[in-house]
Design a protein that fits this description.
By secondary structure, this protein is α+β, with helices and mostly antiparallel strands. It is 37% helix and 12% strand. Strands 1-8 form a two-stranded parallel ribbon. Strands 2-7 form a two-stranded antiparallel sheet.
Length: 217
């Protein structure tokens, strides 16, 4: 899913948006960036508090001027960046914050990993007049599997074709876990803005993307 049109803040009232639309608007269109040490850069200290405290402080401070020849971001966009930067470790912390910001800035929503058939392929190929063949090498052992005894080998014995596996159950499970963590982080951000309700131009709806349909908490 790629962002195609720019979201406009509500003027006469708050505009209802999904959490993903809000993230894309802040990072892709308003071009805000993450500041993981925001409170220390503004007050000299960083209290051990959650994202709600940081959002309240950001709301009190207002929008910060960035300089560099571009107009300052909308105050709501700064609040979004603050919330993403303050994601708790239980939702992925800084690693997840960077991934969300990267995806939102590109306007591309990660898709649910598709189940692909497992493959076993040669590590390397060689070409000859008869076509493509798996490259073979003499097996000298790798510390786990010893080589064959030399007195048991003939002239053409002792060669192997090294292979690699892809699309295994472990890889698919890891990809799905990563996608679930991404959705859980979006749910955390959604609830943060729905509870704090401190955005001036937007109201976050219950919709969270996933599997082509909204995911409810």
């Amino acid at each position: 899913m790629r962002a195609t049109s720019r979201l406009r803040p509500g003027r006469s009232g708050k505009r209802q948006v999904s959490i993903w639309e809000l993230l894309v608007w802040a990072f892709h269109w308003e071009r805000v960036s993450l500041d993981f040490d925001e409170m220390s850069s503004t007050s000299g200290t960083r209290p051990g508090v959650g994202m709600e405290y940081i959002l309240m402080q950001r709301h009190n401070l207002g929008c910060q001027v960035d300089g560099g020849g571009r107009s300052e971001a909308h105050p709501d966009a700064d609040l979004v960046a603050s919330a993403v930067a303050a994601l708790p470790e239980g939702c992925g912390g800084r690693r997840m914050a960077l991934w969300i910001a990267e995806c939102a800035r590109a306007g591309v929503l990660p898709t649910v990993p598709e189940q692909k058939a497992a493959k076993c392929e040669p590590v390397a190929w060689r070409r000859c007049k008869h076509g493509m063949f798996a490259e073979r090498s003499f097996w000298n052992g790798d510390g786990r599997v010893a080589r064959w005894p030399a007195n048991h080998l003939g002239k053409e014995d002792g060669y192997v074709c090294l292979v690699t596996y892809s699309g295994t159950a472990r890889e698919v499970a890891a990809q799905r876990r990563r996608w679930i963590e991404f959705r859980l982080a979006l749910l955390e951000l959604r609830e943060t803005f729905r509870v704090c309700a401190n955005l001036s131009a937007f109201e976050v709806s219950e919709k969270v993307p996933g599997n082509g349909a909204p995911i409810e908490a």
